[in-house]
Amino acid sequence: MTKIVGTLGPNSRSVEVISGCLKAGMSGDLLNSFLSLEMFVFSLILLSYIVARFDFSWGDAEFHQETLENLKVAIKSAKKLCAVMLDTVGPELLIVNKSDRPISLEEGSFVILTPDQDKEATSNLLPINFSGLSKAVKKGDDIFIGQYLFTGSETTSVWLEVSEVKENDVVCLIKNSATLAGPLYTLHVSQIRIDLPTLTDKDKEVISTWGLRNKIDFLSLSYARRAEDVRHAREFLSKLGDLNQTQIFAKIENVEGLIHFDEILQEADGIILARGNLGIDLPPEKVFIYQKEALYKCNMAGKPAVVTRVVDSMTDNLRPTRAEATDVANAVLDGSDAILLGAETLRGLYPIETISTVGKICAEVRAAIKVKASVIICFTSSGRAARLIAKYRPTMPVLSVVIPRLKTNQLGWTFTGSFEARQSLIVRGLFPMLADPRHPAESTSATNESVLKVALDHGKACGVVKPHDRVVVCQKLGDASVVKIIELED
């Protein structure tokens, strides 16, 4: 029932690897028998429960566009659809290393953090992308530098202690030896407000070009700190026309976001708990408490909650640790809608195996609960009705049958449906199916019965519907909403 958000990057951008990720996102090849059904009225496509995340903290638009084109090819060949999430950079502090050469930092030495990005990065001098650091910190403050923040590897993450502030520069004592190597190193000062806009000019440019061109399904709003951050982002999307239905997931990454969590949740379509950053801004032993509280609030509000940083060790290893496997299971039991994989799939050595492993852990949790293998089938055009049902966390899966609608802009005719279906891919327990647009399902009750038969046949093929099970069907007949309970025969 729990979904997977996989980040595509250098090690997961070929058609072959992406196809493997899409297939690994499902519990076995459940689609073959369904696709072989010859139906006169309707054909349905089960969407994979993978959401592809494009992280614009690194890489340019051209790089991500090539990856997206490969994703489209993989989707077509694998006969699975996939939603697209654009992750903004936001007010993220970055080490600027234009040479891309590894930088060695020695314990006990000093290094200067400078806003002068024209200077070369060395073991004694690190340019950063923020001119206000010297005004935000004081002597004794801790600063963390790491690749995607905490990776668990002492050799690639470094703790600094502010020793002195000299005009715009910050002199720091290096507290552990490390080598900074790779495309992205972020800088974090615990519980210090960074005076930068949440949606930066760079973010707006990427959204209005790459995002608009590709009609993104989700926007991950990094470093959301207040409700107005979400409102500002929504206003910006609404002005772009084709992105006015794009859902905004507020990414909670620091204490300020937690303080204003309730108001952010009210404005956002969903929440992403960025536990890597939270583990730096908070004492690590406090993160799980806030995680449980945040997931509970999201569940009560009926809004999707996504948890990050669950199998960090699989970036370099084929198997997760026992603690990580338990962490995934607990996130599922707490009510997470999705697990977000970052470095594990972006630059990790085993992206396909990671998705498969996380999927198996999620499925094992579900088996342990021993829920009934029955299903709710919901006919919907916007997807909203099915999401409202999933809000109440029924113990059975919800099959959302999305009915396309014919739409015109006076220049041509198009069908809606796939966009609305893809946005259900991140909601726990909700599995969208897309009806054939050539046959409008609202035309006759016979048509509804035909698509219902296909949905039931698919449920049988998937193993979620068995003889003598009861199935709840929610559908609209004219202006009336009807709920039917069907008891299946042999």
From TrEMBL:
Its EC number is 2.7.1.40. InterPro entries: Pyr_Knase (IPR001697), Pyrv/PenolPyrv_kinase-like_dom (IPR015813), Pyrv_kinase-like_dom_sf (IPR040442), Pyrv_Knase-like_insert_dom_sf (IPR011037), Pyrv_Knase_brl (IPR015793), Pyrv_Knase_C (IPR015795), Pyrv_Knase_C_sf (IPR036918), Pyrv_Knase_insert_dom_sf (IPR015806). Residues 50-355 form the Pyruvate kinase barrel domain. Residues 363-477 form the Pyruvate kinase C-terminal domain. The keyword Kinase applies. Its cofactor is K(+). Keywords: ATP-binding, Glycolysis, Kinase, Magnesium, Membrane, Metal-binding, Nucleotide-binding, Pyruvate, Transferase, Transmembrane, Transmembrane helix. The chain crosses the membrane at residues 34-52. Pathway: Carbohydrate degradation; glycolysis; pyruvate from D-glyceraldehyde 3-phosphate: step 5/5. It catalyses: pyruvate + ATP = phosphoenolpyruvate + ADP + H(+). It comes from the Eukaryota. Belongs to the pyruvate kinase family. This is Pyruvate kinase. It comes from Rehmannia glutinosa.
